[in-house]
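hiii, so i know i said id send this last week but things got crazy w the move. better late than never?? heres the sequnce for the chain we talked about at the cafe, plus the structure i predicted for it. fair warning i was half asleep when i ran it
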Amino acid sequence: MIYKPVEQVIVTDLEDELVLLDPSTQAMFSLNRVGRWLWQALPASRESLERQLADSFGIDATTASRDVGAVLSALLQAHLIEVHG
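okay and structure toks below
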């Protein structure tokens, strides 16, 4: 499965965080450094994101899996990303 940003989401990059706006609901969502990195790595599979996160931040696979899962879950709940395949 590939996670992909929803097309209509408006992204504002503030360097230390990323702010996402869903124009259909006017809901805003702020991503920290890890969330920002993950968003910018999309589209990608969860497995690919976990490997890349572990490598990029020098963390173990368990931590990478937990962090990726938490961010993807939050983004899915907010309808800011969608799953394909």
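btw Helices lie at 33-41, 46-57, 61-77. thought thatd interest u
miss u guys!!
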